[in-house]
Amino acid sequence: MRKHLRICVGFFTLLAGFILALPFVPGPGIPLILVGLVLLSDHFPWAKRSLDWAKRKWQLLRTS
Question: Where along the chain do its domains lie?
C-alpha cells in the first residue's frame, strides 16, 4: 500500500511540477519536478537516471 501511495504522489508531484514549469505559469515548477523524481527514483530506473543527471548539472553549476 505504501509503495503505491508513494508512486501516485510522485507522479502527481511530477505532473504538477511540469505544469508549473511552463512559461507564464507562476509557481515552483523545478523544485516540484525534483521532489517527484526523488519519490519515484526508488521504483523506476528512468527517474533515478534523471535525478542523477540533475545532480551532475547542479554540481557543474556550483563549481563554475
Answer: 2-63
